[in-house]
Amino acid sequence: MRNKLLTQLGKLRHKLNQQINKLSNTRYLHRSKTFNLLLSLTVGVIVTTLGITTDWATTGTSTLTYKTSWIGNTFGRGNLRVQNNIEAMYVAPDGTVYTNSHWDEAGMEAAIYKDGKVIGAIGDTHGWSRGGGIAVTANSKYIYLAMTQGSKGKTDEDYPPEGTTWHSVRRYDLSGKPMPFPNGRGWDKSMLITSTKSEITGLATVESELYVSDFAANRIRVYDTDTMKELRSFAVANPGAITIDPQKNLWIIQSKNGGNPAKILHYSQSGKQLPEQIADIVEPTAIAVDHQGKLLVAENGPRQQMLIYDIKDKPVQVGSFGCKGGIYAGVPGEVRDLKLYGLTGVGTDASGNIYINSNGFNKSGTDLRKFSPSGKLMWRSLGLIFVDNADADPKTDGVDLFTKQEHYLMDYSQPAGKQWTYKAYTLNAFKYPQDPRLHTSPDGTFVRRIQGKPFLFLTNMYSSFLQIYRFNPATDGQVAIPAGMFVGTNGDKKSIAENWPPHQPEQGEWIWRDRNGNGKFEKNEYDTSKDYPYLGGWWVDSKGDVWKALRTQDGIRHYPLQGIDPKGNPIYSYSSMEKQTIPSIFNDLRRLEYFPQTDTMYLSGFTVDHPAFGDDTGVAGSEIARFDNWSQGNRTPRWRIVIPYDTTGKREVSTAAMSVAKDYVFAVTVKTAEVNVYNATTGVQVQQLKPGPEVGSESGWIDIPYGIRAFRRSNGEYLVFVEENWKGKVIMYRLAR
């Protein structure tokens, strides 16, 4: 009936257009007034009856207005934004910070920072089998960057042979432009090949000499900074980061090896080992010498501090910087100026200002800070997002947002990009070393309140697991405590084909629950089963029930919540699991969202009418359908909508993810990152959201199955969070009713 009415409305609209064309001729103006009035009233009655006044949005008009904002990166647009991770840095006397990392999605593995801004990229580190590294230094003339260069097959330019990787030092001018040299290698002759076995782990310059840690060879290699010719080398076991003291001698981190702990060793320029060393450290990750000649050490062990040593004679620790215990001091996880976490870089400028980078654990993101000599925070540059999305705490009306490791506090009265404050880092790598976030790569976040208590659910790019976290402020502050985990069947192999987690079943799938509350995977904490191995997606409804979509005809699995155990963990079991069949219109289910308050199910996937082009595993399907009275057995859709899907196999316009919030269904495309908004009652498209000028009118691809999450606030405003992996943020659309 609805389709028939829509057809009639279309014909009527066509007649209206004809009349409007006539009205352009003044002969028809007066005698057409009556017809025009009656026609307008008729159209209004039909539209009102159908409840689709917003259908006019498909022709360019919309009743929804929106603004674009973002979270998780200090800078929301342009090529110069905070990179995904900083794994090494060097601070010049004038306060310029040079950085390096293995990978940045937008190709800025290495960057130049000053005065809290990104002032340049150290170029050409991405693509063509190139990548960054974990060492960087500079002198008054050049930047020296550790990087990798892989093979590119047959080419006339200078690339390594197939199966070989060059671990190189690449030379740049101080603006970040590659600077070739005689006998340089690579396509532009700016690379110095140091090893083909392992990456460069340390770089430093003194006068006209460049010192390079060749980890695989257990040697320090010395080169001329201008000619880049090797001058000499000397043996150092497991050499890492290097710095130079006022006497022009070297201090070198010796990385731990098996049962041998890490140390910091002292060498002359000629390679003679000097007697001084520092052994009272756990995990040194970076070193520098300040303007007073003191040695600064990034201690990434439980202390999470920068340690300060007087090295004039025998090294003596004379101070430290940052709270002891780092982010876990005071209220665990709560962000404060002097609370550090996952240190990867330290340095000072000629004025004694201190620079420290925290990377979190398992590469959580960049947190680069500058402090005055007295310890006052002067600026902070944040790049906290990589392959991630946000979700809102329903109890706080969207004031609290969570990503997989971060907690943000929102003030929606502020301008775009200024609404978020980094509130907490929710991962405790020392108390919970088996936290799944340290061993996997989750990227989709669900925040739920179950029996009034907050829980965090995380899944990954392949929907292969669902991780569960609880909160206990009395014992763990802001930290999310590992509470449970679902994994899917992996044929006859382990569900997770690694040594982690301990005691996992040898085959099949499992549900883990932290029965004793210690955050460890223990033998008696697994419930096991075996099922169809190909997953479409997960869902956690407002009651705390877990739903799983399998890509088979009886592929809906419903795990009703069985309660909360004495340790605060939600209880699920295979014995209480319900199997449900997929409606016959679908032949490959990808996503599901169920709302128990209204007994409404939304499904997306490929249908009999619109099948998949091959085994296109990364998309939401070709249709979304709504089913009312789901628990009563209804499998007849209230409506079906065909969503963007490219049948050529190129995925140019495919839909990556969907999210339902109150009156609307939101679906985002893969490559264009356009959000199509549908009326949840009728299925009619009412709007399309595109990145606005606040984020440079651009976005990267949507890489994850939960790349969109939507939330309706109590004032009627909708928040729509969209993954923006390319430039390290989450885009946030704000839709006014």
Description:
It is a single chain. This protein is mostly beta strands. The chain contains 3 helices and 51 strands. Strands 31-32-33-34-35-36 form a 6-stranded antiparallel sheet, with no helix packed on it. Strands 6, 7, 8, 9 and 10 form a 5-stranded antiparallel sheet that branches. Helix 1 runs antiparallel to helix 2. The chain is globular and about 80 Å long. Residues 1-61 have low confidence and may be disordered.
The residue fraction in helices comes out at under 10%
Task: Give me the count of strands.
Answer: 51
Mean pLDDT: 91
Per DSSP, the total helix count is 3
Described by the principal axes of the CA atoms, the overall outline is globular
Structural class of the secondary elements? mainly beta
In the predicted model, the low-confidence regions spanning at least 5 consecutive residues are: 1-61
Percent of residues in β-strands = 35-45%
Cα(first) to Cα(last) distance is: 29 Å
Biggest sheet strand order reads 31-32-33-34-35-36
For this entry, give a set of tags:
single chain; 6-stranded antiparallel β-sheet; disordered N terminus; 737 residues; mainly beta; globular; 3 helices; 51 strands; 5-stranded antiparallel β-sheet
Give the helices and strands, then pairings.
Layout: H1 2-23, H2 33-50, E1 65-71, E2 88-91, E3 97-100, E4 111-114, E5 117-121, E6 130-131, E7 136-138, E8 142-149, E9 166-173, E10 191-195, E11 200-206, E12 209-214, E13 219-224, E14 230-235, E15 239-244, E16 250-254, E17 263-267, E18 273-278, E19 284-289, E20 295-299, E21 305-310, E22 316-321, E23 343-348, E24 354-358, E25 366-371, E26 377-383, E27 391-392, E28 400-402, E29 406-410, E30 420-425, E31 442-450, E32 453-460, E33 465-471, H3 473-476, E34 480-487, E35 509-513, E36 526-529, E37 535-540, E38 546-550, E39 556-559, E40 578-580, E41 586-595, E42 600-607, E43 623-627, E44 639-642, E45 655-661, E46 664-669, E47 675-679, E48 685-689, E49 708-712, E50 718-724, E51 729-736
Antiparallel strand pairs: 1-51, 2-3, 3-4, 4-5, 6-8, 7-8, 8-9, 9-10, 11-12, 12-13, 13-14, 15-16, 16-17, 17-18, 19-20, 20-21, 21-22, 23-24, 24-25, 25-26, 27-28, 28-29, 29-30, 31-32, 32-33, 33-34, 34-35, 35-36, 37-38, 38-39, 39-40, 41-42, 42-43, 43-44, 45-46, 46-47, 47-48, 49-50, 50-51
